[in-house]
Here is the input.
Amino acid sequence: MFDGEGVPADDAMVEIWQNDQKTQRFGRYGTGTDKENRFLFQTTKPESVDGAAPFLSVVLFMRGLLLHLYTRIYFSDEEALNAKDEVLLTVPQDRRQTLIAQKKGQVYTFNIYVQGENETVFFDI
Here is the structure.
């Protein structure tokens, strides 16, 4: 979780929501609770629903935001489903990578940038 200056934010709260018809999960994590200001979640990867790419819904709260932000986390090993996901296709091609967690071993890594060159795509609800 990085602020507008690219510095890890120590006062953000990240929530994830997962609902793939089999699993309904919720998690909340404050970045200031980790000495490296990370957020770490352990969950199962969601399944595809109605042919859409699996994703986690994310809600972000932090200083300087009057309203919380909404985004999604998609998965790098779901290329075929990502390529036809209706929501992901609404995002300009050059910005889609900001929504895709990269798989390394059994772990997915996903960074959120509030502003700047690598700014994460946020959605209006």
